[in-house]
Design brief:
Layout lengths: L1 E7 L8 H6 L7 E5 L2 E10 L3 E10 L1 H8 L25 H10 L1 H5 L15 E9 L3 H9 L5 E8 L9 E11 L4 H16 L9 H9 L10 H8 L4 H20 L3 H4 L16 H16 L3 E5 L5 H7 L6 E6 L2 H11 L6 H4 L2 E5 L14 E5 L10 H12 L3 E7 L26 H15 L1 E8 L10 E8 L33 H10 L1
Parallel strand pairs: 8-9, 8-11, 9-10, 11-12
Antiparallel strand pairs: 1-4, 1-5, 2-3, 3-4, 5-7, 6-7, 12-14, 13-14
Helix pairs in contact: 3-6, 6-8, 7-9
Length: 522
């Protein structure tokens, strides 16, 4: 990654004052270690008339993978081989923003002990970045920088100069010029807006990022016309952090309008106020959506196929409308845990008569599963090899044929929103696939047509306008006049059912790896 900062001067105010401001001597080339490589600072030119400081960040790709594993994306979110083949060593991103704050920390704070009069003095500046990822293109670059007083030149980089018909890439060559900005303001603008334009960060975003954003955005972010977009992207669309930042920005605007201090306005609640309300876990949202679908279907006798540790069975038992609940899983261990969760050994006789836990594989037909009102496959299908899906399809839709079937599965498009999920990884180590919304819809509609069902689709969790919800749900309803066995062909073989998406937000634990061993032993 490469960035240059240039200024011009006069004998009275020489351009080499830039060296004082950056606390880096123009006569030296210096290197600074960072968490992901080495940052070099050098001056290609330095005299009274013109001075240019260059920051070259060499990224250690291996360190990026090692440090990113399990805690961040570890690479570009849309790279085909994201861990090892990506744009991170070359395109300006949060890596460069962090290097700016580390190498030029005093300049960013506006501190210069040797020449204390310099930081507050506006000067002509030109900043150039040859490769900047910009999700939104040159138009978004202008929308972000022009309100801050910059003259913006953002030239889209073609995908391949030899094949212009391929169009432009998502990268731009950026040049910013200003006559009235201070160096500290310029560095703070870059620190915030580089990761905003990239729309990704290389590290896990916590509540500390709100404080960083407000510190770097002091004096310019509250009044920026795109402050909502900046805040949301900088905080990687984590809605709770975004809400917190927006509330604090609003306080700043009110304080400026009222010519008062923020602390004077933000004093209505004592420091010992209740902790911030946490968002509802995805596992809870998923169960609520399934229960709503079962209620709408008027189901009383329900199969939980791939019941795992019994969370859904437990929720069904709390509602008296469900007169018979059967949990099926291939894992004996999972069923044992479910039994403990449900306290089967201490359950009253009437309650115990409503629930059954049964070992079984969903890729085999089982005549005991016929005649039920509804069946649920919650986070199950993605644990099977694709070659096993026809067998599950026949066992559930062709043989058991409940009136209603509810299927939930992860939406792979949403994975870019999980900051703890490295790019290109599925949510759980045992997931054999994860589908886009179009792929899931195509599969569900084909199954419904083959077996005489209608199907509708419902988002589960926050429905992101760009990538959809984290979980997608299909509700199959058997059509009138299709009481028989539907499709006549079936696929055989063994398979597994287990649950858990491994995102750290669902609260459910996968059981499939254990299940496979126990199935083989059986």
């Amino acid at each position: 990654m490469f960035l240059t900062i240039s200024t011009t001067g006069t004998p009275e105010r020489p351009a080499t004052d830039l060296g004082h401001l950056l606390h880096k001597h123009p006569g030296k080339a210096q290197a600074f270690p960072t968490s992901y490589g080495t940052a070099h600072v050098l001056y290609p030119e330095a005299d009274e008339q013109r001075c240019t400081a260059a920051l070259l960040l060499e990224v250690d790709a291996v360190a990026l993978v090692r440090r990113g594993k399990g805690r961040g994306r570890g690479g570009a979110p849309d790279a085909a081989l994201a861990q090892y083949v990506n744009d991170r060593p070359y395109a300006a991103s949060s890596l460069l923003a962090v290097a700016l704050s580390g190498v030029f920390s005093s300049a960013m704070r506006g501190v210069c002990r040797a020449r204390p009069e310099l930081p507050d003095r506006p000067r002509p500046l030109r900043i150039e970045i040859p490769a900047l990822p910009a999700r939104g293109g040159p138009a978004l670059v202008q929308r972000l920088f022009e309100p801050l007083g910059w003259t913006v030149t953002a030239e889209a980089v073609p995908l391949d100069t030899e094949f212009p018909q391929w169009g432009d890439s998502r990268y731009v060559r950026l040049a910013l010029e200003s006559e009235r900005s201070t160096l500290a303001q310029a560095l703070r603008h870059l620190y915030v807006l580089l990761p905003v334009l990239d729309d990704a960060k290389h590290y896990w975003v916590t509540s500390e990022e709100v404080d960083k954003l407000l510190r770097a955005g002091e004096g310019w972010l509250p009044g920026h016309p795109e402050h909502k977009l900046i805040t949301s992207r900088y905080l990687t669309r984590r809605w709770s952090l975004t809400r917190q930042a927006m509330e604090r920005l609003e306080l700043v605007r009110l304080a400026e309008t009222d010519d008062s201090d923020v602390a004077e306005l933000d004093n209505a609640v004592a420091d010992e106020s209740e902790a911030e309300e946490r968002p509802t876990p995805l596992a809870v949202l998923r169960r609520e959506a399934i229960l709503a679908a079962l209620e709408a279907a008027g189901a009383a006798r329900v199969l939980d196929l791939g019941c795992g540790q019994g969370q859904l069975v437990q929720a069904l038992l709390k509602d008296a409308r469900y007169t018979e609940i059967v949990g099926v899983d291939v894992s004996v261990r999972a069923l044992t845990i479910a039994g403990r969760r449900l306290k089967l050994d201490r359950m009253g006789e009437r309650q115990a008569a409503r629930v059954t836990l049964r070992q079984g594989s969903l890729v085999y037909t089982d005549k005991r599963l016929k005649g039920y009102d509804a069946a649920v496959l919650s986070e199950v299908i993605e644990h099977l090899d694709l070659s096993r899906l026809p067998a599950l399809e026949y066992a559930v839709f062709g043989a058991a044929r409940p009136r209603t079937v509810v299927v939930t599965t992860p939406n792979v498009e949403y994975n870019v929103r999980w900051e703890s999920l490295p790019a290109g990884h599925v949510r759980h180590g045992d997931h054999r696939f994860e589908w886009t919304r179009a792929e899931f819809r195509a599969w569900a509609e084909a199954v419904a047509e083959r077996h005489g069902y209608g199907v509708g689709f419902t988002p589960v969790g926050p429905d992101d306008p760009e990538v959809g919800p984290p979980t997608q749900m299909a509700v199959f309803t058997r059509a009138a006049g299709h009481e028989g066995n539907g499709a006549t062909s079936r696929a055989g073989g063994t398979g597994q059912t287990g649950k858990g998406d491994g995102t750290g937000t669902t609260g459910e634990t996968g059981t499939t790896g254990e299940s496979e061993k126990e199935a083989k032993a059986a």
